[in-house]
Structures are given as structure tokens and as C-alpha cells.
Design a protein that fits this description.
The complex is a heterotrimer of chains A (288), B (316) and C (423). In chain A, 74% of the residues lie in helices and 3% in strands. By secondary structure, chain A is mainly alpha-helical. In chain A, strands 1-2 form a two-stranded antiparallel sheet. In chain A, strand 1 (130-133) and strand 2 (136-139) form a beta hairpin. In chain A, helix 1 runs parallel beside helix 5 (140-162), helix 9 crosses helix 10 and helix 9 (218-233) runs parallel beside helix 12. In chain B, 76% of the residues lie in helices and 1% in strands. Chain B contains 14 helices and two strands. A two-stranded antiparallel ribbon of chain B has the order 1-2. Chain C is an alpha/beta fold. In chain C, 41% of the residues lie in helices and 19% in strands. In chain C, helix 6 (188-204) links the parallel strand 7 and strand 8 (207-214). Chains in contact: A-B, A-C, B-C. The interface between B and C is large, with 47 and 48 residues.
Chain lengths: 288, 316, 423
Amino acid sequence: MTLDELLLQALNGLSFGALLFVLASGFTLVFGLMHIVNLAHGAFYLVGGYVGIVTATATGSFLAAIVAGAATAAVIGLASERLLLRRVRGKELPEVLLTVGIALVVADACLAAFGGNPRSIPVPSVLSKSVQIGDITYPTYRLFVISLAVALGALLYVVQHRTRLGAMIRAGVDDREIAESLGINVPRVFTAMFVFGAALAGLAGVVAAGLLTLRPGADIDVLLFALVVVVVGGLGSLEGAAVGSALIGLVDAFSKVWVPEFSYFAVFAPMAIVLMFRPAGLFGRSRT
Amino acid sequence: MSAARWAGVAALAAGIAAVVAAPYVLPSYTVSLLTLMFIAALLASSVNLLAGLAGLVSIGHAGIAAAGAYGVAWATVHGLGLPAALGVAAALTLAVSVVYALTTMRTSGIVFLMITLALGITVFGLALKLSSVTGGQNGLTGVRRPGMVGEWWQYYFFTAAVYGACLLVLAALSRSPFGLMLRGIRESQTRMTSLGYSVTAVKFAAVVVSGAFAGCAGVLLAWNSEFMSPSVASFSRSALAVVIVIVGGTGTLLGPLVGAGIVVAAEYWLSSYVERWQTVLGAVLILVVLFAPRGIVGGLEGLAGQLTHRPRKEWS
Amino acid sequence: MISRRWKRRRRAVRLVLVVLAIALAASACAPDEDTGGGETGGTVKLGFISPVTGFVAALGTDMRRGWEMYWQQNGGKAGDVTVQTVFEDDTGDPEVALTKARRLVEQEQVQLVAGPILANTAYAVAGYVAGKGLPTVQMTGADDLTQRKFDPLVLRVGYTSSQSNFPAGQWAYEQGHKTAVTICPDYAFGWESCGGFVSAFVKAGGKIQKQVWHPLGTQDFSTYVAQARQANPDVVFIGSAGGPDAILFYKSWTGFGLKDKIPLVGNCCFADQVFLREVGEEALDLQSFTYWSEGRESAVVQDFVKAYEQQHKEIPSLYAAGAYMMAQVIAEALKKTGGKIEGADFINAARQVSLSDSLYGALTFDDTNNVVGPVYLTRVERRDDGTLWSVVEKTFPQVSQFGTEGKDAFLKHPVFSRDYTGQ
């Protein structure tokens, strides 16, 4: 494999991984704080993406699409958390089943509202060109996705480790009771985190619509990827989500070239290896 | 014998009578849905064995069912007789169950869930890939049922009988020392180890036993459709089995049957009249979780317990 | 104390056993069968299955619309016979498709089942319906349905997956392209599509440099496009199943700047309306080999397109056209049989249908119940109102599912698969 080909595939893997990071970060944060496996995360991605597409087509503004998509997902997340999830706080199986019910309703609503045609987002012309990197021509949009993910990661890191909000969240993760006794309004932090996670999923949907297409069933496809990423990275860990998504993206890209027969299973190989040697994930903490 | 006991026996007799009467009073299509319900209930029961007793939730059991289904389908299409076909199905089910067991026996909780998820998807992928054996995406046609149960009503009785027999075995297992060991694992693995039990060995056995029931469900499914395709192993089928268990009531004996009835009704009966049936199913799930958190049968048992001032029992 | 408990238990067990015995005795008697298919005097009842939910919801919805449009335009009648349709959704899953087919046959008592579309759902449904002695009309491309798995009760109003690609392979070579790379999804439809192109291209003298197979539902085509680019062939053939795969592939293709570097030829289903609605301008001048050209200059086609667009605000896709064709052939057959649907007789009547022009063009059927008809080389153009559609550049008449080999020679070799693509 020449250096150019290597670079090309690496960029492919990283751009897909970048998208996975935007998606998985929300998922892992919600789990880390609230111990909820939010199986409706894919549905939030889908609805956010569809709303983004409709907004972009109507207004011509990609930025408006991002805002609209993330906001829609956030609102649905808020309704889910306050009206439904809060009533079964702490009970794992009911929480998961509740998110499954929410996922079914949201996904079906998307089908009813947006139809079954595969849709993608009209990308602003500045992003739809290609860039010359050495000998290869690489789509600008993919580089945009990578930069977006890096920026998001940096922002999340700063918030988590350098702000009071982040400290509150970390306290809530470490020990909820003590955090509450210190006066932190833990339920409100939980709600905020769930809403934020949903917003991230919606953002991922809008961004993905420029790279992939949205269609019925896409919610389950991405949910599976998100699950693999957070298992590899460690549930609850942002660093884990970053490393995990980069790893899975690269494995996906290179396996298609080197072992195309098995590219379907290839993403499970890192998961299997991690689970064998570090069941809590690369950056995870074991839950006792 | 107490009134509650008599009531239980009477209910059982009534249930059996209803099951037997069905083909004579209901149209053949409805009976075919009941057949599907029993098959789905059997698969869900296999998941329930692990989830209800041992606290291990598997979201990949459709993969094991598919192993049994493909085994019997491949054998039948290649002209092997009934005993040989069942033998192939059993061997394949055992092999796949052992793989599931070996990879999960040292894990629990979320990790167990994720590994079974991956395994289920792997089986699905293999069914797609090994197209010379499995027929790939197009699947295998012409998987004829054994002559004796060829007719729709005969097959219905056969399926109901198999389900009933499996239910008896599951009930016996639950009360057996093995069942107690599984419950012990759910309570505290460290305590079980300190008592001298090999937790990994018990888990291994549990997954293999549960796999046997799943394989049975697979064989029944293949014969029911007389057709086989990778969708039997899909993630949604596995997820649906888990939903059935939770809706019916994890850990209850009849929970999977009730859950299966609801899901099959939604997927096939409701969908013919309501285009947004998936929304209805989602709403039903949400309602069940909010208002019957122990599942429908679990909730009913709790209610019965309150009415008769008896503590709620598991595996009634 | 213990003996009393045992007596109680024994009584309960005996009760249960008695019930079981009655049950076993009762089960020896067969209940009434719900069989359908009888005449209902002047009305026929048809069953129609397509995936209106699930990952191919767009296809199933278009199918329903095309089917309904035919009956609307003909007053819901075929000659003197009134036609009723019962619709079912198969969600793209074979188990569901089969159960819905059961419902149509046993509960709704339909006399014929049309659809579904995905190959595995079609095989499941056709197997069941034919097993019940009822005729079924399909539009799926699965080659073997009218070849090695032929059944006298199954009629395909449509083309096999490989059929429209035979002229493609030949034509590509005649254009001066000596080497080719094929990109097809890694399952039966893809193998059969590529098989059609490859067998014809190689037979004409061409060389296949590489066959790229991608999993169905691939999100990211950049790897596959890169492989094609590396081989640097004279032409690339894309045998897509349409929908998201086609759109994503083309995004990668243009994103990597290959649109103007390597000629691309599509199969029947690559540049269809579902694709064009999404891709837009970038798709201009794309060439494909297909059986449905919505821009074809024929009154039949343009009337249909106009009427469809008026009702649904979209140009009809090949799924809408295909379902319309199924309805039309069924209607013509009904006129021939005087409204009777009796098993293989109905299929034989349908097979006699010969149309001098239709949405597909001038078509007849061969003796294994498949269409023999024209294949068009099309190009994507912009209409006056700015929307895109495919217009005909060249017509290849009377293409058979057996290509140029003839039935016997063709059936001697195995069905196109990943290992055998006609090289």
C-alpha cells in the first residue's frame, strides 16, 4: 500500500470516526452520569438529521440546520427525561425498555413525517469541494467533520475538567449522595445532561446527513456503532469515546481494503479484544 | 388443597382447553398467528431463563435460534431424513451455544449484554456471507415440515405441545438445585464462589441449556415458514425477544407467553389495520414500563399476592 | 398430613390429564380449512404486498402508488370485472411477508398475490402462494425465480437482475473500453447484475480488472471508490440496488473527483428517480442501462408520468412503473380469461399478453414466465422545469433473460454468484 493510499484510508477512517465521536460522546456521557443505556440515541440522531435536512432545504443555511436539528432532538430528550425516564430512575431494565419504546415512537414518527426516501443534506458550497493533499483529492466535507469532532472534544474536555459545571457532573458521577448533600441539584444536572446528550445526537444526525444518507433503519445502524464505540472506549469516559471512535473508524476503513470478506465483523474484533483484557473498556472504570 | 391452588389448576385446565379449541373456533390465519406466538414465547423463554434466574440479559439469542433453524433447513433441503435433520440442528445449536457460553461465562451485566449483541450480529453476518451453505440474502426455500404435522392445525398443536413441554422443563429447572444456583449467581457471585461453586461453570451450563430452548424455537420457526433467511438472526429479533421478556415479566413462567402475545398481535394483527402500528407498540411498551414495571404477569402476580395476602412468588 | 397433600396433588394431576386426553382426542379431527380462490361473480380480489415501512419504505410506497394508479385510470375494472385490492406491508422482512401473504390468502381470501419486491421476501411469498395453488405475480429481479426455480404459478412482470446488463457489457466494449472494473453489492442482486455485465463484456472481448463487492447498506464508499480508481480501468460499471447505496456511492465518486476522469455506466436501478431526487445536478449526463426510462418519448409513458406527477408531485420511479405494469398485465390476462383466476391457467393467459407499447415498451413473455422486452441506454437530462430524468439514447429490443446464449446453454451454468460471474 502506497503512502498516498494509506493516507486516504486513514482519512476515511478518521472522518467516519469523527462522526462516531459526535454521536458516541452524548451516549457515553448520559451513561456515565445516569447509568442509562439510552437506546433511543439512534432515534434522536435520526430526527435531528431529518429536521436539519428540512431546515437546510427551506432556508439554505447549514448553520440553521444544525441548530434546528440539535434543538429538536434536545426538546424530545427533555420530554423523555422529565415525563418518562424520571419515573423509573435507578431501575435499569425498565429504563432501557422505556428508551426502546421512545425509540420506536420517534422513529415511526420520522417515517410518517419525512417519508421513506433516503435523504441527505444540501451542503454549503464552501464545504462541498475537494482539497488536494499530495497526490490525492479529498472531499472538504470530511475534513470539516474531523475538525468539528476535534473542536467538540476540546470543548467537552474543557467543560468537564475546568468549569464548575464539569466539576458538578464529575461529582455526580463519582458519588451521587455526597454530591446531593453538598447542595448540588443532582436531578436537574441529570436532566441537563440527558438533554445535552440528545442534542449531540441530533447534531451528529445533521452532520451525518452530509456524509451518509438518512433513511428508516439508520437509527439502528448508528446505534450499534455507538454501542461498540463506548464498549471499547469505556462507558462514561469521554476520552474513551474519542479513542474508541477513532479506532473503530480506522478499523472499518482498513478492513474494507484488507479483509473485505470480513469487514462486516471487523468492528467487533477490537470490542472482543478489549472485553477480554479490559472488560470495563480502555478508559472505563469497573462498576462495582 | 387451598382455594388458590384449585384456582390455579382450574386456570391451567381452562388454558389448555382454550389452546385446544382454537383451530375449531378461530380462522386459520389467527391460528397461524398463535403458532407464531408460541414460537416467539419459546425464544423469549430461553432469554428469560438467563435473565430471570441468573440476571444475565442476552440481546443476541436470535443467533442461537438461527443456528437451529439453519441446521434443520439446510439438512431438509439436502434431502436428509427427519432424525438426521434434527441431529444437524441440535449439533449446530450446541456448537453456537458453546461459543456464546465460552465468551460470556466470565462476564455479567452490561459486558454480557454487549458480547451477546456482537455474537448475534456475527451469526447474522455469517448467515449472509456463507451463501453457498445458507443461501445468503435470498435464503433457503423448500424447508418442508415433517409429514405428520404438515397441515396448519397439526403444526399449531405440535408447536403448542412443544412449548408446553418446554415450559414444564423450565419450571422443573427453576425449582431444581441448578435453578437455585443461577439465582445465587444473580444475588451475589462472590458469595457463590466462597460457597465453593464454580460460577463460570454454572454460567457456561446456563447459556448452553438456554441455547437448547432457543434452538428449539429456531427449528419450529424454520418449519413454520418452510423458508429460512438471515433475518431470523437479526438484531431486531433478538431485541424483540428481550422486549417480550420484560413486558411479560422477567422471571415469571408465563411472562414470555403474554409478552409474545402482545408483540405478535402488534406486529401482525395490528399492522394490517393501523399503518402506525410501531408507534402503538412503542406506546404500549412505555405504558407497561410506567404502570407495570414488573411486566404484566409480574404485576398480576403482585396483585394476586396482595389480594390473597401471600408474598409474591417467582416462577408460579 | 403428607398423604392428604399427595391425594390433593393427585386429584389435580388427574384433572389435568383428563383435559389433555380430551385435547389429544379432539386434535385428531381436522378443523375446517379457510380456502379462498373461488369466483365471486364479477369481482376479483387481489392481494398486494410491498414494504411501506422499514429500510426500503420508499420502494414499497412507490409500488403501491403505481398499482393504484392503474386501477384508478381504468375505473377499478378489467373489462367487465371489478378488481378489489387488499394491501399489506411486509416491512422488508421475509417472515413478515410470509405471514402477511397467509393473511391475504386465508383471511382475505384473495385469488392472486402481487409483490413483494425484495428477493428473499418474494421467494418466501411465491413459495407459499404457489404451494396453495394460487397464482402470483412478481416484479423482483431475482434471476432464478423464472430460471432454475421456475414454477408455473409464478409470473414475473419485469426483468431479471442480469437481463438489462447484457446489452451493457456488449455496448461498453463496442465503445472502445477494453478494461472494466465492476462495483456491485455483495449479495444475490449484485452478483446477478454484475454477472450480466461481466459475461457480456468478456464475451465481447473485454477484460475485467477487478470486481469490487461492497456490503449492502454500506455507509462509506470511499474505500471502494479508491480501489476502482487505483485499477484505472477504461470504464466502471456500477450494479447498484438503488436508494441510499447508490446515493452514497455517487457522493464518494464525485467527491474524489472521478466524475470526469473515468466513464461510469449504471444498471437498471442505479440512477432511478429515488437517486435523482436526492443527488440533483451532479447526476447530469449519467448513463445507465435500464428498462424504465421516464423521459422516453412515447405517449404511454408521458401520459403516465404526467398523471403520476399531478397526483404525487414526483416523477414516478421504476418501482411505481413496475407495479403499474403488474396491474396492467393482470388486467389484460383477466380480459382474456373472462375474469376467472384459476391457477396455472391464469398465468398461461398472462403469458400470452403481448403489448406493442407499454411503460416498458413492446413486450412479450417467454416460456418460463419472464418478460422479453427492450433495454434502453439512457442519459440523465434536465427537464424544462429543472427536474432531472432519464431519456433514451439507444434502444436494444427484445432482450431475453438468457442474454444471447439461449435458454439451454444459459441454464447449463450455475446462477450468477460471487464465485461465478460469467467469466
